[in-house]
Structure formats: C-alpha cells, structure tokens
Amino acid sequence: MSHFSQIKTKIRSLPALQSALTDLGLDWKSGPQPVRGYRGQAQTAALVVEQENGYGVGFSWNGQEYELVTDLDFWQQAWSVDRFLKMVTQRYAYHTVLSATEAQGFQVAEEAKAADGSIRLVVQRWSA
Description:
With about 130 residues, the protein is an alpha+beta fold. The protein has helices at about 15-25, 80-105, and strands at about 5-10, 30-35, 40-50, 55-60, 65-70, 105-115, 120-125.
C-alpha cells in the first residue's frame, strides 16, 4: 500500500514552477527524480525539493497539470501543506503573469505587495 499523496494543482508551466520555488528559497532538482516515501517506496517526479530527512516533495506531470507528490508522514517544510501550496501557487501565478505580459510586449511599471500578502502589478506597453 502506497503512502504517497498526490495533490492536484493548477500548475502547468514547469519554468514558472521552478521560479516560484526559487523565490521561496527552496533548493529543487530537475527530474526525472525519485521522491522517496515509506519503506523505500518511490515515485518519479519532474521536479523534487529534497528535505533534510531524506524524503522529498515532488511535482509530477499527470498529463494536464503538475501534482504535488509526497509522503505526508515525512513532511518537513517550514509551512503546512496548505500554506506551502498557497505560497507556491501565488509565486507561480506571479511568474506566469510576468511571462505572458512580457510575451505581449508589456513591462512592469509598478509592483507593490500589500499587508495581506497580495501583489499588485501595473504593466505598460509603449507603442511606436
């Protein structure tokens, strides 16, 4: 019986996910990499954040999006699973917006972080 949990996300861009994890100060390894779990079980992930206890937190592609894959019995992050996913998702959305606006010729004119943790971006595009 597997102890792995697979938690759905809305994450579809690996580069934006990598940037989000880097923003959070997490050291990640690009895969395919094994995520270790209970009794030596392993699952393969596209990206893995190693933990000090030797067990990892991974993100694996399910054909539509990246799912968080880990053995929750060995969770050793500074945040709860919910908080971790909220923080990763926010930074992921930030990088996705930056990438999309840059591709359309926009530049960030203003960026502000509110007390509640939300981020306000103002983008602009100069036309010739």
